[in-house]
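Dear colleagues,

As part of the handover before I leave the project, I'm documenting each prediction I ran so the next person doesn't have to rerun anything. This entry is a single chain, and its sequence is reproduced below.
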Amino acid sequence: MKRFLLFSTALAGLTAFAPVIAETNTVGLVAPAPILVTMAGRYEYLSKLYYEGTEHPRQPRSLVVLNFMGLKCPPCRKELPLFLEVMRHVTERSKDGRGRIKFFLVSTDPLSDKDELRKFMEEQKIDPNTELLLDPYRKACEKFGVTGIPRTFVISPQGRIAAEVAGSVEDYKTLLENGISDALKAEEGK
């Protein structure tokens, strides 16, 4: 009986954060503003990047895209090239000053995987010191309601969730591009 309980508890621990495809309803809600850390040990205050619900027109903020992922998550590895393709395309296109857009991968991997994570990010041509945020204790996941990875959020400069893609879906790239485009259009139209 103890072995079964231990095994089922261990199994529950593994599956509690398994990759999933989920229908969510956070679009339009005020985005949480957790503090995350970079690989270089610098704190990234998300509240300084986007508004926390109320507008302050004298303080220009950024549109932020967060992709929650993990090294040992096959759907995350499958989705990553699509995320990077959109990130690089949008970043190149937005150099004309249309607005500030920040992309971050948010790693849910334990701190003990830091070296492996750094190596993987460098292989993907991602700067682990500026484009990667660490959430080893899953506090940001908790604030955003992330129960499965991969999960991507597009957050407007007003601090509202403009789009969300949960799980590894076939039309991920289109959903992400549309979410960014809609958030930019809303920003221009305000």
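The first strand starts at residue 35 and ends at 38. Residues 49 and 62 are 5 Å apart (CA to CA).

All the best with the project,
I.
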